[in-house]
TrEMBL record:
The lineage of its organism: Eukaryota, Metazoa, Ecdysozoa, Arthropoda, Hexapoda. This is Origin recognition complex subunit 4. It is found in: Nucleus. GO terms for biological process: DNA replication initiation. It holds the Pfam family ORC4_C. GO terms for molecular function: ATP binding; DNA replication origin binding. The keyword Plastid does not apply. It comes from Timema shepardi (Walking stick). Belongs to the ORC4 family. The keyword ATP-binding applies.
Length: 716
């Protein structure tokens, strides 16, 4: 019984030994061999069940020991039989009990020996696992597995010393029936569905990160040594979280702030260019599948779009012109001076933005609205004087005073409106500032009545007013009648793009960088802002992006067009396309800016395209200076003389082709047409860029090889 108590301490057979001890103890009191035998048989059945789960190495030992026990049992039975036969009166009950107890004791001793052997066998089977506790990975050499379409996960084989390749499953791939579940997992923004057993997109109702997506505000405890995730010491950030990049002697890995290993690894010698901060951001953004509005709000896309399309744009450049306009308006508002000025410049040069910026700065002074009234008219809306005077009355808030009035003329109506602004002394009269957008369209009104009365009031100082006209026509003063022109102050402010296109294009690249960069503001995650801004700087420096921007700048220098172009690029970003690429600029330019001029050039005759090529070379050599027919003719004849295959064309035919190019607005005359100058010597401006000519030459059907080579060669 003492041996049974010792055997109960063995974990594998403790319950069976305790059960046997109780039954044997009960059998001693009832003095029945049958009960003791049942107890032994029950223990044997329990041992058989347990032995089935033991390693095969111990099974042979058990079988060998069991055969020896059976042989000894047979000898004992034979001795007992011989003893019974030698007794004349038969065995006594006491002798039977004594022999039965001896037999039972031997069986129990044998069982305990078997239990001891099984226990040692189990310890021997678990011995290889104990080796990893004593293993030092520094003395092992691991080969870096080739991992195409997946990522290398460290410390997953050879007792956690060597890496393995983790395969990334795609959408619809089975994720429960993979051969090695530990070597495969669903890719980014996918999860394994228990219902279908395949990788599916994250549910739209799944929980998403908070406003700060890269972790909670509280510091995350970073354990300097964490062998469960990494063989070696972890590096901790100052805030107590895990550092983005963790390296050992062989590998460098990117980890989250919580220490979770991300699928970004490199050998130690190649890990200097790892951007683990950006890897963290991409890991977080992968959780926003189907939630573009969250991505827009939390990752700054809405901020960039608002900045691109914001009507409150800041005026840049033309400091002297801006100060001049501001001085005129300020003197009208503060001192009651009457002035008139025209702001002239090509479309998109910033004329309207200049006026809005000046008015905004004046309104911030606080006294502007008390001393002046702003009236804005647009030639595209106010197509006649009746509509114009009606809107003037509305903007001056004098509708109630004129409802019952009948005026004989426009001048009488305008004079009455201005008289209503006076209260007592002349100096107390409110000034009126008229902003006339598309000023050249007002010149087409009948008798130019509106312009005549406004300029007349400004010149005669009947009331303090300032007339500011905004137009894109350089010859706008030639459209004014003599009586209107005589009352105009002839004060003009010109806003022309830089004469040097390199300076203008450099300013355009600076604007591109400014519009795409994100500020370090509180609502945005600082790590994401850093990664986005670094990527933007690399995109701006990309040669392909610069080439697309240069083509757009040569075709249309308007900032409005450029902002619309950028807005279409930003609108393409989504959860599957989170960063800008050079291909985005190329594809958007192709779809956004279909060059109709190229279509016009491809429809010309071979002779006409030769003249266009001659104009291209002439413009490139003389840096955009004007040209005339004789200049183009000399350059064309030089090409014909150098190529024997080119046919000579008579001069009248060439002149006719030149006139046809003029009618297609490929060239345009400069200044007012002077009949005294022969048309062969009249100067023209070439309106087609070199890129447009080169693209038309590539698309031109059946163009001779000599002409194509002439178009692509250096200056002739």
């Amino acid at each position: 019984m003492g041996l049974l108590y010792m055997s109960s301490k063995i974990p594998a057979f403790g319950s069976a030994a305790r059960w046997l001890r109780v039954h044997l103890f009960t059998a001693q009191f009832v003095n029945t061999t049958e009960l003791q035998t049942k107890a032994v048989l029950a223990l044997r059945r329990k041992m058989a069940i347990t032995a089935a789960a033991t390693p095969a190495a111990s099974t042979s030992m058990i079988s060998k020991h069991t055969d020896a026990w059976k042989e000894r049992q047979a000898k004992k039975k034979q001795q007992l039989k011989n003893r019974r036969l030698s007794t004349e009166d038969g065995p006594s009950l006491v002798n039977l009990h004594r022999h039965a107890n001896e037999l039972l004791t031997q069986k129990i001793m044998h069982i305990l020996q078997v239990i001891t052997i099984l226990s040692f066998g189990m310890v021997a089977c678990s011995y290889p696992d104990n080796i990893c506790a004593l293993k030092n990975c520094q003395y092992d050499s691991c080969e870096i597995p080739e991992c195409k379409g997946g990522y290398v996960k460290p410390n997953t084989t050879n007792c956690g010393c060597c890496p393995t390749c983790i395969k990334l499953l795609g959408r619809g791939d089975p994720c429960h029936q993979v051969e090695i579940p530990n070597n495969a997992e669903c890719g980014a923004s996918l999860t394994c569905s228990e219902k279908s057993g395949t990788c599916v997109p994250l549910s739209l109702g799944a929980p998403f990160p908070s406003r700060k997506p890269l972790g909670p505000k509280r510091p995350i405890p970073c354990l300097a040594s964490n062998s469960t995730l990494w063989q070696g010491d972890y590096k901790c950030s100052p805030d107590g979280s895990y550092a983005p990049k963790q390296c050992n002697a062989k590998f460098c890995m990117c980890v989250t702030r919580h220490g979770e290993v991300l699928p970004y690894s490199q050998p130690h010698k190649m890990a200097s260019n790892m951007e683990c901060l950006c890897a963290r951001v991409e890991h977080v953004m992968s959780h926003f599948s189907g939630q573009q509005h969250l991505m827009c709000d939390m990752f700054g896309m809405c901020y960039i779009m608002d900045k691109i399309l914001s009507p409150n744009q800041t005026f840049r450049g033309f400091v002297a012109e801006k100060n001049h306009v501001m001085d005129l308006l300020k003197r009208t508002a503060q001192f009651g001076e009457s002035n008139s000025v025209l702001i002239v410049g090509p479309r998109g040069s910033g004329k309207t933005t200049l006026v809005r910026t000046v008015l905004k700065e004046l309104q911030e002074l606080g006294t502007f609205e008390e001393h002046a009234i702003l009236v804005q008219l647009d030639g595209r809306l106010h197509t006649d004087d009746r509509l114009a005077i009606k809107d003037i009355t509305k903007q001056m808030k004098l509708e109630e005073l004129v409802d019952d009035k009948i005026f004989m003329s426009f001048a009488e109506n305008l004079a009455y409106l201005l008289q209503c602004l006076k209260s007592g002394h002349k100096g107390q009269s409110k000034s009126v500032i008229f902003i006339l957008e598309e000023f050249d369209l007002f010149c087409g009104h009948h008798n130019q009545t509106l312009l005549y009365n406004l300029f007349d009031v400004a010149q005669s100082a009947q009331a303090p007013i300032c007339v500011v006209g905004v137009t894109a026509r350089l010859d706008v003063t030639e459209l004014l009648e003599k009586r209107v022109k005589s009352r105009f102050s002839h004060r003009q402010v010109f806003l022309f793009p830089p004469a040097d296109k390199k300076v203008g294009f450099k300013a355009r690249l600076t604007l591109l960088e400014k519009l795409l960069l994100l500020p370090m503001t509180e609502p945005l995650e600082p790590v994401y802002v850093h990664c986005w801004n670094e990527h933007v700087l690399s995109i701006v420096a990309d040669p392909e992006v610069r080439h697309v921007c240069k083509r757009l700048y040569d075709s249309d220098q308007s900032e409005r067009t450029f902002r619309t172009f950028l807005a279409q690029i930003i609108s393409k970003l989504d959860i599957d396309h989170m960063t800008l690429e050079a291909s985005d600029f190329t594809s958007t330019f192709t779809a956004f800016f279909r060059d109709t001029m190229v279509d016009v050039l491809t429809g010309l005759s071979v002779l006409e395209i030769c003249l266009v090529i001659a104009m291209k070379h002439q413009t490139e050599i003389y840096d955009g200076d004007p040209l005339n027919f004789e200049m183009v003719l000399q350059r064309y004849l030089k090409f014909v003389s150098q190529n024997s295959s080119a046919e000579t064309v008579q001069r009248p035919v060439l002149l006719k082709a030149f006139e046809h190019l003029k009618s297609l607005e490929i060239i345009t005359p400069i200044g007012k047409t002077n009949k005294e100058i022969q048309k062969e010597y009249r100067l023209h401006r070439f309106l087609v860029t070199s890129d447009q000519v080169n693209e038309a030459v590539k698309k031109f059907p059946g163009l001779p090889t000599d002409v194509s080579q002439w178009a692509n060669c250096s200056f002739q």
